[in-house]
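> example.struct
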């Protein structure tokens, strides 16, 4: 996959209703589908959070005095950009519906 930020630029950040029949088309079970989407959303959330913290660490100042706190416009713009991104759950649902999420079911039954 390419950069997640470029993929979700045109994505509507609002929650939308989806057809349940379309959601369960591959798994035949709504709970499995929601488990797949929620796991992908957790992955996206961790990745985006890690990326944001890396970018904001560039602006970190090692001094402990309160008087030296400045507003950095670049830091504010980066934060606002990440705030405007759609929720990871919305991104994961769209990726699932577009067939971009790979999933498999591990059969735990013993085969004889």
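> example.seq
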């Amino acid at each position: 996959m390419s950069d997640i930020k470029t993929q979700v630029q045109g994505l509507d950040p609002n929650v939308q209703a989806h057809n349940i029949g379309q959601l369960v088309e591959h798994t035949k079970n709504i709970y499995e589908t929601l488990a797949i989407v929620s796991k992908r959303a957790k992955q996206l959330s961790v990745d985006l959070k890690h990326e944001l913290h890396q970018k904001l660490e560039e602006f970190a100042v090692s001094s402990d005095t309160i008087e030296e706190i400045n507003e950095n416009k670049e830091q504010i713009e980066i934060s606002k950009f990440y705030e405007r991104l759609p929720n990871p759950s919305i991104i994961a649902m769209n990726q699932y519906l577009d067939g971009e999420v790979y999933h498999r079911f591990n059969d735990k039954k013993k085969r004889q």
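> remarks
Residues 30-57 form the longest helix (28 residues).
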